[in-house]
Structure formats: C-alpha cells, structure tokens
From TrEMBL:
Signal peptide: none annotated. Keywords: Coiled coil. Residues 160-187 form a coiled coil. The lineage of its organism: Eukaryota, Metazoa, Chordata, Craniata, Vertebrata. Gene3D superfamilies: 1.10.287.2620, Dynein heavy chain, N-terminal domain 2 (1.20.140.100). Pfam families: DHC_N2 (PF08393). It comes from Saguinus oedipus (Cotton-top tamarin). Residues 201-419 form the Dynein heavy chain linker domain. This is Dynein heavy chain 1, axonemal.
C-alpha cells in the first residue's frame, strides 16, 4: 500500500497523525508516548478465512509485541481493524472505529444538514422568483386590459383582416395568461402563501369575446365572399358554403345585441349582417349549379328552359352567373337540380351494389357423381342477393330511372338469374377441360352451368360472374 493511500486510510479511521516515513507515532494508554516514540512498520500479507488477502502495516513494538493495521479489499469496500498482541499494551487511538462504516452515520448526518440548508436556500430563492414572476404577471394583465379596451375604437371594416389578426394574437395571450394564473396559484399552495384571486382575468376574457367574434367573423366573411364570387364555380363546396353562411349570420347577429351600448362597434356588426342577408338568397342558386348529379343532359335542359346557354366551364364563376342574371331563374335551376339529384342517387345505388359483390367469392364444385359442376357461395351472399333484388325492383318503379333504365333491367335480370337454383341434369353438361378455380361473382346460391372454352364470355357488370378464365354459364331449366 502506498504511503498516500495509507495516510488517507489513517485519516478516515481517526488516527491523530501520520507521517510519510515508515515510522508511525502512536500514543499509549493515558496519553503518554512509549520510550521510543516511533516504531518500524513492516508490510505483511496474510490470507483470511474467506481466501482474501489482507494487506497492511505491522507495528513492531517493544518486548516482541506487535499491533497491526490490516486492510481488506473486497467488492470495492474497505474494511479495517486494529489488533494488539501481548498484554499490558492497550493502545489509545483517538476516534479509531472498529469498522470504517462506523464513521458513516456522522457523515450522513452532516450530509443531511447540508442538504437541508441547501433546501432552505433553494426554497427562498424560488419564493423570490415566484414573487417577481407574479409582479411581472400583474403588469402584463394591466397592459392586456388596456389593449382589450382599445378595440372599442376600431370601426374600419377595410382593416378587418388586420384587426382580426390582432384579436387572434390577443386571444392567444389571454389563453397563456389563464394557464400562468393556474401555475402561480399552484406555486402559492406549495409555498403556503395566500392564493391570489385572478377573477379580473376571467372578466377580461369575457369582455374580449364580443370583439373576437365581431372581427374574426367580419374577416372570414370578406374572405369567403371574395372567394365564392371570383373563384371557379367548380371549386365551391355548396354544403360547406351553406354552413358557413348560417354560422356567420348567427354570430354576427349576437354581436349586434352585445354592442348595443357601443354604437360604433354595433355599426360594424350591422354592416356585416346586411352583407350576409344580401348573399343568403343566392344559396339555392349555388346549390343547384353545384349539384353533383348535374350532367350534360341537365345543362342542356336548363339552357333550353331559361334561354341562356349555361355550361360548367373551368372559367365560369359565380360573379359571371350573376351577370347572366341566373338569379332570376332560381326556380327553374332548382327543379332541374332536384331531378339531377334523384337520378344521381339511383346511379350511386347501382354502383354501390356492384361494388359490394366484388368481394364475394364462389367456389366451383363437382355435383355428386355427375360430370356437372355447381357454384357454392357463402351464407351472407344469400341475404345480400335478396336485399339487392328488392332494391333494384324499387328502382324500376322510380320516375327518375329513365337515364339508367337499361342498366337497371340488366342488373335485375342478373340478380334473378343468380337466384334460380334448379337441380342440374347430367345430360346437359359436360365436364370442364381443366380443374375449376374460385370465382368472384354476384351469385348467392348454387347455379349449374355448362362450361365451354369455345364460347364467347358473357358481358357483365363489374364483379358479376368475373372469373379467371373466359367461361360461359347457363341456368338449368
């Protein structure tokens, strides 16, 4: 063991002094020194009971007696003990513990005191920060109060977008202030301080809300109306337009009542409300022109009825429609659009039925001991088949079926053909030339069929009797 390490060990164990020389001054019992104040230290190494090697310095004392300071290093932990051989030689080693760990309680207590002191200092520091933050927060609230009150002098509709951006910025600041108020109140509870009342902030938010509604609605309306009038008619979503108009009217009507004591702000609200009321009669016209069922045949009918050539061109805008005085023919446009909507519903229903059959899989299986085959379908296909037959039959009685009459009849015949499932006759069928494969078709029941590679495939709607090869099927009578 090096002298420096032994010196540190001796200091930790409570020895009074230690010299860098291999001589160790010790005090005998009663505080007196022996005749020779220094004794030679001899390095020794002996195995302990656990097989560890104890290394330390043995002190050679008069009369053959010896005291050893042994150091055991095990699992990175230091253990030391003092031994005295021979009688009448009790050593007075001030503060020396039997185990080095015996000194840790005092160290831990010292550490606790240090941490407690640090905690007191940190608590005082954070308390000062809390007080400073709250003072700054109060100043911020006073500034926001002035800003909110200042909105009462804004009455220029031409600056609606600029003012709207300002109220949105103030809205964000007020929201942040509400979160900060909650934070500061929580800190006050931690420090056991009186809870600050921030009701003033809540009143400020309530006072600010009418200004927010007024200027955001005014800005949105100016932007929407500009877009609806000048953008291509094909880009207008008629359903969303109607929602926006209704919501804007409700909000601005509320603002008119809230600003009854502020004539200047109420005037702005009345102006915007008048513009919305002026636009509202155009909603049916836009809905008619933007009906998704409008096809070329409908535009031709409409043009003939109103004697104005109307076509959905890319550069057609709603402002151009007003220049063409289409608002004078709203009734005719609405009637044509209503017919287009009913026909569109039939078209969508047909597409939906065909799409539902595209996921139904059928298997071709041999029928008993015959050379014929049948189609086997899952159970849910039977219910789907019945539902579609009823729906298709109801379409066939619709007064709006004319553009799709041929398609409806063809689809109904396929469904009825699929519904038929008589027993197959062996004399009418020949076996297929190769192993049959699963087919995605619209049949929900078993259907016997004759297979021939030489016959042309039947033409069906998407998903109906569509197989991996060109097959021809016949219902068995």
């Amino acid at each position: 063991m090096k002298a420096a390490g032994l010196k540190a060990l001796a200091r930790d164990c409570g020895f009074a002094s230690f010299m860098e020389s291999p001589l160790w001054p010790l005090r005998l019992k009663g505080g007196t020194r022996p005749h020779s104040s220094h004794f030679p230290l001899v390095l020794v190494t002996v195995p302990d009971m656990l097989g560890l090697h104890l290394t330390g310095y043995r002190l050679q004392l008069p009369g053959g007696r010896a005291a050893s300071l042994m150091v055991a290093v095990a699992a990175s932990q230091l253990t030391c003990t003092s031994q005295l051989s021979g009688p009448n030689w009790p050593l007075q080693l001030p503060g020396f513990p039997l185990w080095i760990a015996s000194n840790w309680p005092s160290k831990i207590l010292g550490q606790i005191e240090m941490v407690q002191q640090q905690h007191v200092e940190d608590e005082e520091k954070f308390r000062k920060i809390q007080i400073m933050d709250q003072n700054n927060f109060q100043e911020k609230l006073e500034g926001l109060q002035l800003v909110v009150a200042g909105f009462s002098i804004h009455v220029e509709i031409a600056r609606a977008h600029e003012i709207a951006n300002e109220v949105r910025r103030v809205k964000k600041q007020l929201k942040d202030c509400q979160q900060q108020a909650v934070l500061y109140n929580n800190r006050e509870r931690i420090f056991s301080l009186p809870i600050t009342n921030y009701d003033k902030l809540s009143r400020m938010v309530k006072e600010f809300q009418p200004y927010l509604d007024l200027w955001t609605t005014a800005s949105d309306w100016l932007r929407w109306s500009e877009s609806w009038m000048n953008d291509p008619l094909s880009s207008i979503d008629a359903e969303q337009l109607e929602k926006n108009v209704i919501e804007a009217f409700k909000t601005i009507h509320k603002c008119v009542k809230q600003f009854k004591d502020m004539p200047a702000c109420q005037e702005v609200a009345l102006d915007i409300r008048a513009r919305i009321e002026e636009f509202k009669p155009y909603i049916p016209l836009i809905q008619g022109l933007r009906n998704p069922g409008m096809r070329n045949r409908h535009w031709e009918v409409l043009s003939n009825q109103i004697n104005i050539n109307v076509r959905p061109k890319a550069n057609l805008t709603f402002a151009r429609c007003l220049e063409m005085n289409l608002q004078d023919h709203i009734e005719s446009i609405s009637k044509v659009a209503e017919v287009a909507g009913k026909e569109y519903a039939i078209e969508q229903a047909l597409d939906k039925m065909e799409k539902e059959w595209s996921t139904i899989l059928f298997n071709i299986l041999p029928y008993k001991e015959t050379d014929t085959y049948i189609l086997k379908s899952p159970d849910e296909a039977s219910q789907l088949l019945d539902d579609h037959i009823v729906l298709t039959q109801s379409m066939s009685f619709s007064p709006y079926k004319k553009p799709f009459e041929q398609r409806i009849n063809s689809w109904e015949n396929k469904l009825k053909l699929t519904q038929v499932s008589p027993p197959p006759s062996p004399s009418l069928f020949t076996p297929p030339p190769r192993e049959p494969q699963p087919m995605a078709v619209t049949d929900g029941l078993q259907v016997g069929f004759k297979v021939s590679q030489h016959l042309a495939p039947i033409h069906t709607a998407p998903g109906f009797l569509a197989g991996p090869s060109s097959l021809h099927s016949e219902a068995v009578n």
